[in-house]
Amino acid sequence: MVTASEIRQQLLSFLAKGIDLDDFEDWIAQNTWDVHRSGDLEAEQLAYSIELFLSEQSSGHLSESDLRSELSLLSSPRIEIQPGAWMLESGSSNQVMPDQILAWSLPSQFVGKEGGVVSG
Predict the structure, then answer these.
(1) Does 50 or 88 have the greater pLDDT score?
(2) 17-39 pLDDT per residue, tens
(3) Contacts of 101 (CB under 8 A, 6+ apart)
(4) How far apart are the first and last CA of the chain?
(5) Integer-rounded Cα radius of gyration of the chain
C-alpha cells in the first residue's frame, strides 16, 4: 500500500519538475486507487486532495501554474499537536514540546550543504 511519504515524494518530484504532469497523474492513478484500504488517514487525505486538484486542472478550472501552486500547499508533512503536549514559554518565543519526539526529514533537494532549508 502507498504511504503519505511516498505520495509526497512524487508530489515533490512533480513540483521540482523532475516528472511531468502526465507522469504524475499516471503515478497517482496507479498507486492511490485503493488508498482507502491502507488505513493511513494522511495518505487518504493527501491522495484525495491531489486527485481533486488534478480533476480541476483537467476540467480547465486550473492552469498548470495554478495547479502547482495549490499542490505546493500539500507538499509539507502535517504536524498535529496531540493531547499530552505542553507549552514552553520564554521571553522571545513560544514552543510546543510534545511528550514524544517526532522525527521527520526534508527531501535532500530542500536542504543546503550546512543543513539549512533552501528556499525559492
Answers:
(1) 50
(2) 999 999 999 999 999 999 998 88
(3) none
(4) 32
(5) 17
> Taking a C-beta distance cutoff of 8 angstroms, is the pair 35, 43 a contact?
yes
Q: What is the mean pLDDT of the chain?
A: 77
Residue of 58, 62, 59, 75 lying closest to 15 (CA atoms): 75
Could you tell me which residues come within 8 angstroms of residue 102 by beta carbon, excluding any fewer than 6 positions away?
79
Per-residue confidence (pLDDT) for residue 74, from 0 to 100 = 87
Query: What are the percentages of helix, strand and coil residues in the chain, rounded to 5?
Result: 50, 10, 45
Give the cell for residue 100.
514524544
* Identity of residue 24: F
Which set of grid coordinates corresponds to residue 109? 533537494
Dist. CA 110–CA 120, nearest whole Å: 9
